[in-house]
Amino acid sequence: MNKRIQTALSQAAVSTFESMGFLLPTRELDERQLKAPAEASVTVAFHGPVHGALQVRTFGRLLPVLTANMMGLMEAPSAQLQQDALGEIANVICGHIVTFLTEPDAVYSLDSPKVSGPAAAPGKEDGSLEAQVQLGIEDGRTVVELRIFEGTLAP
What's the CATH number where 43 sits? Predict the structure, then answer.
């Protein structure tokens, strides 16, 4: 894995969950966070000098808390709102990380987020894993992965 991109991905994920979800992610996970069941997954593909995808997977009951915080809701948010919130989190993290992949003025386009059910990890055929971040949040966790399909990363 690319150390420079790993650091940038970690910073982007932490700051996004803090600023948008009003949550305090930790890099150290406890036993209950590690054992939290898969909840959902979202993937955002990107295209430019490098083609790839960013995937955010959640575990535990993280989505209702994240969505309620983002939307300022007091009651449990609908499943659709939860999917939309997760997609927006992935979009923001992806938008931050593509600036670290090649030259700073490179132009990238992001596809619409693709949300899926219980979070299955991508297979090796889904591109080369360049960076992965796992963060503990509340009683659950999130795993953020950056995969590259085509192109050369900046050193």
Answer: 3.40.1550.10
